[in-house]
């Protein structure tokens, strides 16, 4: 009965208005400090600011962050999962247990549903917390430790605004003067009448924050990759420059971000991975702990995206996240990434070294894992992903980490940046060196008979699959959403999700929730487009899966 589709939105805790509080007008009340008093306290006791700083990262992926008690409440990581399920490349079964069926069918534009509310609240929770955190400091901060915290906070705010911009409007290059989302800051005069800023205005904030972050993070060495160092800030600015069409700058920033990092080797990705924040190719990630996961085991990426958890919606209900067959069929058999998903016969070489021990329910190894069934696991379905690992296989902790930035992404940004700034030869060399060395020894960029720009997009779609980039890339590149090639047999996508959408279809843009519309009276909502219909636009093609 698809509970996610029918549950009305109920807000608890902070709402968007809190992020637009007139910070300069805070008055002492029940122990609340004036802004000037807070600044003085932070300056005198840096550990106080450190305590509030650590909380800035929680909306990235803390289970049950908004106390909904539902399996889709896990902040930004939930947004990233939705970004892929709304794309052409990732899909899950259309069954009564799929809380994310709204993404497959695109009913996620309904302003009453919880799904779009969480996707709106998560980035604004970061923005609100960052605004409040930074308000606790004056203009004369010199302590390097405090400056590093401030720089990380600014980078987080930029990341949050980038997510919102990509959800609520089309690409920067063609739509920079179109309405995007409201700006919330200490200068916001009235949060109840705070109109949408343009895409260009949002990116002014993003670029200023990232420029400041890069400066403040000079020389900072983090203790854990859950934090942001200068290279991560460069990586975020590389994304922003790519979005804005500043291609040479995007390539330069991506090079700065990637310095000292190397991609995962063919051997390393010949088994399920992408689960530990200490993996050497990660620049930044969400560090899930067992204690955090315990707060809501099902509200985790391990429950939904990883096929090897025995305490999960994926394995426990057969709602596995799968690759679209039309993309899978384009991957060369010599590419190690072909094994990141089981084929139509449920085979993947990545299963060969694995064992699933279900205790009294049995113990199986290798290819038998795919067909293995017991109370906590359904058999895999064709094209189930085995890219994302668990430790151990059959875990019930769901404490796997999730990448937010990898060096492989930075290399692909370099390739695209050089190509689109006029250096095609260097772009091709970067792309071929990466894929031949780390993924497919037989690769050449002309293999798929695509133009180089589409080839780079193809590589992004394979390499970054499941990590939250897919629909944002589709919109950034002004490409149609192509889930099937004209016939039902061309795809493994469920019938209700089987449709194509034109690049300018207004239904691709998120809608504002009723809660926001009822508290911010200056919002003009996105209204173009209509709910897609099964088998619509069968002749659309994207240049990659044709």
Quick gist of this model?
With 546 residues, the protein is mainly alpha-helical. The protein is 39% helix and 5% strand.
Could you describe the 3D structure shown?
By secondary structure, the protein is mainly alpha-helical. Helix content is 39%, strand content 5%. It contains 22 helices and eight strands. The chain has helices at 3-6, 16-19, 35-44, 46-54, 75-85, 101-105, 114-134, 144-168, 172-175, 199-216, 230-244, 247-258, 290-294, 301-304, 313-317, 325-328, 368-371, 407-420, 424-438, 452-463, 470-476, 514-519; strands at residues 90-91, 179-182, 196-198, 282-286, 322-323, 355-357, 363-365, 402-406. It has a two-stranded antiparallel ribbon. It has a two-stranded antiparallel ribbon with strand order 2-3. A two-stranded antiparallel ribbon has the order 4-8. It is globular and about 60 Å long. The model is unreliable at 1-19 and 21-34 (pLDDT under 50).
């Amino acid at each position: 009965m698809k509970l996610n589709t029918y549950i009305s939105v109920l807000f608890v805790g902070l709402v968007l208005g809190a992020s637009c509080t007139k910070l300069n007008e805070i008055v002492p009340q029940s122990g609340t400090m004036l802004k000037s008093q807070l600044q003085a306290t932070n300056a005198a006791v840096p550990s106080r600011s450190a305590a509030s700083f650590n909380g800035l990262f929680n909306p990235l992926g803390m289970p049950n962050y908004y106390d909904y008690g539902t399996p889709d409440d896990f902040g930004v990581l939930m947004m990233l999962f939705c970004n892929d399920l709304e794309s052409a490349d990732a899909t899950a079964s259309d069954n009564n247990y799929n809380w994310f069926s709204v993404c497959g069918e695109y009913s996620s534009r309904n302003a009453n549903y919880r799904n779009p509310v969480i996707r709106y609240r998560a980035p604004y929770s970061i923005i609100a917390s960052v605004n409040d955190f930074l308000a606790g400091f004056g203009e004369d901060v010199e302590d390097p430790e405090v400056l590093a915290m401030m720089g990380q906070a600014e980078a987080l705010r930029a990341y949050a605004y980038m997510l919102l911009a990509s959800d609520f409007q089309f690409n920067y290059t063609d739509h920079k003067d179109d309405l995007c989302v409201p700006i919330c800051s200490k200068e916001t005069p009235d949060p109840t009448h705070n109109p949408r800023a343009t895409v260009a205005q949002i990116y002014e904030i993003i670029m200023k924050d990232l420029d400041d972050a890069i400066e403040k993070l000079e020389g900072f060495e983090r203790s854990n990759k859950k934090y942001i160092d200068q290279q991560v800030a460069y990586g975020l600015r590389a994304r922003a420059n790519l979005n804005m069409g500043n291609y040479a700058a995007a390539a330069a920033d991506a090079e700065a971000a990637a310095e000292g990092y190397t991609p995962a080797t063919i051997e390393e990705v010949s088994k399920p991975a992408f689960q530990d924040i200490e993996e050497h190719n990660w620049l930044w990630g969400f560090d899930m702990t067992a204690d955090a996961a315990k707060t809501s085991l099902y509200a985790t990426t391990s429950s939904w995206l990883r096929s090897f958890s025995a305490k999960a919606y994926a394995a426990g209900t057969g709602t596995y996240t799968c690759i679209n067959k039309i993309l899978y069929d384009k991957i060369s058999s010599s590419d190690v990434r072909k094994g990141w998903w089981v084929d139509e016969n449920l085979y993947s070489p990545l299963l060969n070294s694995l064992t699933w021990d279900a205790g009294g329910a049995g113990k199986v190894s290798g290819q038998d894992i795919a067909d293995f069934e017991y109370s906590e696991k359904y058999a895999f379905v064709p094209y189930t992903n085995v890219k994302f690992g668990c430790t151990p296989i059959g875990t019930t902790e769901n404490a796997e980490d999730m990448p937010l930035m990898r060096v492989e992404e930075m290399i692909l940004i370099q390739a695209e940046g050089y190509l689109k700034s006029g250096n095609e030869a260097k772009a091709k060399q970067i792309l071929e060196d990466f894929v031949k060395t780390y993924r497919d020894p037989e690769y050449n960029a002309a293999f798929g008979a695509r133009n180089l720009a589409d080839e780079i997009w193809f590589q992004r779609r394979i390499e970054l699959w499941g990590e939250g980039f897919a629909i944002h890339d589709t919109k950034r590149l002004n490409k149609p959403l192509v889930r099937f090639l004209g016939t039902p047999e061309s795809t493994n996508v469920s019938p209700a999700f089987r449709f194509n959408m034109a690049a300018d279809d207004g239904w691709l843009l998120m809608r504002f929730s009723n809660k926001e519309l009822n508290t911010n009276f200056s919002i003009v909502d996105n209204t173009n487009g209509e709910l897609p219909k099964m088998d619509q636009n069968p002749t659309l093609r994207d240049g990659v899966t044709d």
